[in-house]
Amino acid sequence: MYNFFEFLFYTIMAVLFYHSFYKKTNKKVHFDDIKLNSTTLSMYNNVLKEHQYNKCLYEQICSSNDSHVTMKNGDVIYQGESRYGYKHGCGKMLYDQIVYEGLWENDTANGFGVLHNKNFSVSGYKQNNNYHGLVKIDGSMFSNSPIKYIDCIYDNGIQKSCFVVDNNQNIKFVIDENVRVVI
């Protein structure tokens, strides 16, 4: 019975969101009309370069990682490096059908990592388990649209601006920091 009411609640919330946000913005926003100021574009390019650097560094560090332990805590499984019984170094944590692969320090996600399942992936740098810098939300879930991914800039876990990017790597829309993209 609880699941039915929960389903009903979320369905009502989705309909309200659609009518209050999506319909209004679709009437007013034309993606081809976007104008970026040089400061915003420069900031985006800087964090994009930093994201690419962190991803390459992570891949170099963790590509030859052969040593690992397996730790299990209920339904959560960690496979990777450890120090003094804590997640430390390169490792991956599995829960249900969600996997987080990344760098760990003293049992906390610290460094570049990727969260993914069969429908989406989110990659970015974490500082004390909070996103910091550019966070890329993969667009495979947007398969019927021209959206490739959404890039959000975070500052110590707080979302700033987000950029909707198309298949041609063009920024099509900037989401204001007052609108939260939930990841």
In a nutshell, what does this entry contain?
With 183 residues, the protein is α+β, with helices and mostly antiparallel strands. Helices cover 29% and strands 43% of the residues. It has two domains: 1-33; 35-175, no CATH class.
- Strand % is 35-45%
Characterize the main sheet: 10 strands, antiparallel
Poorly predicted tracts of residues: 1-33
Shape call: elongated
Spatial order of the strands forming the largest sheet: 1-2-3-4-5-6-7-8-9-10
Compute the number of strand runs: 10
Per DSSP, the total helix count is: 2
- How do the SSEs run, as a string of H and E? HHEEEEEEEEEE
First-last Cα distance: 28 Å
Helix content: 25-40%
Radius of gyration: 19 Å
Sum up the structure in keywords.
10-stranded antiparallel beta sheet; disordered N terminus; 10 strands; 2 domains; 183 residues; alpha+beta
Structural account:
With 183 residues, the chain is an alpha+beta fold. The protein has two domains: 1-33; 35-175, no CATH class. It is 29% helix and 43% strand. It has two helices and ten strands. The protein has helices spanning 2-28, 38-63, and strands at 69-73, 76-83, 86-95, 98-105, 108-116, 121-127, 130-138, 147-155, 158-166, 171-175. Strands 1-2-3-4-5-6-7-8-9-10 form a ten-stranded antiparallel sheet. The longest helix has 27 residues, at 2-28. The two termini are 28 Å apart. The model is unreliable at 1-33 (pLDDT under 50).
